[in-house]
Amino acid sequence: MAALQRPIRSRNKESPMTKGLLIIHTGDGKGKTTAALGMALRTAGHGLRVCFIQFIKGSWRYGELEAVKRFDDCIDLHVMGRGFTWKSESLEEDIRLAREGWALACQAIDSGQYHLVVLDEFTYLLHYRMLEIAPCLEFLASRRAEQHVLITGRYAPQALIEAADLVTEMRVVKHPLKSGIKAQKGIEF
Amino acid sequence: MAALQRPIRSRNKESPMTKGLLIIHTGDGKGKTTAALGMALRTAGHGLRVCFIQFIKGSWRYGELEAVKRFDDCIDLHVMGRGFTWKSESLEEDIRLAREGWALACQAIDSGQYHLVVLDEFTYLLHYRMLEIAPCLEFLASRRAEQHVLITGRYAPQALIEAADLVTEMRVVKHPLKSGIKAQKGIEF
């Protein structure tokens, strides 16, 4: 949590009339998290700060982590959750971790320190009902007017899509893992 | 072109059995180039080299360029073309630039120096028939077995999709520019 208490190193120099967008990357295709990473790095390229919260531990590996390290003056990365899936044995533990992650997200959004807050793989928490959607949407709707929030993950609930400004579906047209080619460095991880 | 003659700073340490993928990001939605940028940075995070060729000059702005600068030991960025669109007044000039860009792409792919070669917005050259598709596909099919190539842009021709290993369509579900919100720093550029 220390990251949230650091002094602001770059301020949003945009007009106060700028509208913060709620952006969703969903669908069963690749590129949801990768495009979020690209957007985070692009934002950092402007010298603006990003809070990137991964809600599924282990979904990122060496390549992303090393890439983000070069931007540690602009990007604060937090890893929540406890494995590749939220469909684990202990529902209570999952709910506890989901609430903890959401509390961190709320704090980051409220802090006013970030141009962009990314909630990576967050949709699963809503889809698997680890969190109630209504209070989440209410919180997002009440955020500062210029705060951009980007949420990724499959199965984005309809209510989230309705609340969003920008929604992209990454749709699989063709996938090599289906033709038996193994996951590869830089491409899949 | 100097970049292509530099000594190799990081080699692909993967097994020679790795299959180089032909990857396409197409569709009318956002995230095609952004996901390519994310993949380039992830690859660079592994210490592997990337050649990123932009086929539409001016489509990148400050944020991406500054982000990529932090990886100038791993990512060689080339900007081809001459404006935001290839539908310009001078067809001859467009064809000349398209051929020049494709020649550079071929050289990068042939060089064996890059884990990943990105041809950003390349589909437009095929769609607007600035280049013939058959020799392009033939060249791509004959590349080194482990060479990954990522092509982005709308209107990916069917023959290119058929030749590809991994195709993702970025589909617009909702877009803020349609609701009158202006393009914003870090989000759109």
UniProtKB/TrEMBL annotation, chains A, B:
Reaction catalysis annotation: 2 cob(II)alamin + reduced [electron-transfer flavoprotein] + 2 ATP = 2 adenosylcob(III)alamin + 2 triphosphate + oxidized [electron-transfer flavoprotein] + 3 H(+); 2 cob(II)yrinate a,c diamide + reduced [electron-transfer flavoprotein] + 2 ATP = 2 adenosylcob(III)yrinate a,c-diamide + 2 triphosphate + oxidized [electron-transfer flavoprotein] + 3 H(+)
GO BP: cobalamin biosynthetic process
Pathway: Cofactor biosynthesis; adenosylcobalamin biosynthesis; adenosylcobalamin from cob(II)yrinate a,c-diamide: step 2/7
Signal sequence segment: none
GO MF terms held by the record: ATP binding; corrinoid adenosyltransferase activity
UniProt-listed SUPFAM superfamilies: P-loop containing nucleoside triphosphate hydrolases
Keywords: Transferase
InterPro entries listed in its UniProt record: CblAdoTrfase_CobA, P-loop_NTPase
UniProt xrefs under Pfam families: CobA_CobO_BtuR
Annotated EC: 2.5.1.17
Function, as annotated: Required for both de novo synthesis of the corrin ring for the assimilation of exogenous corrinoids. Participates in the adenosylation of a variety of incomplete and complete corrinoids.
PANTHER family: CORRINOID ADENOSYLTRANSFERASE
Protein family membership: Belongs to the Cob(I)alamin adenosyltransferase family.
Stated name of the protein: corrinoid adenosyltransferase
Species whose genome carries this gene: Desulfobulbus propionicus (strain ATCC 33891 / DSM 2032 / VKM B-1956 / 1pr3)
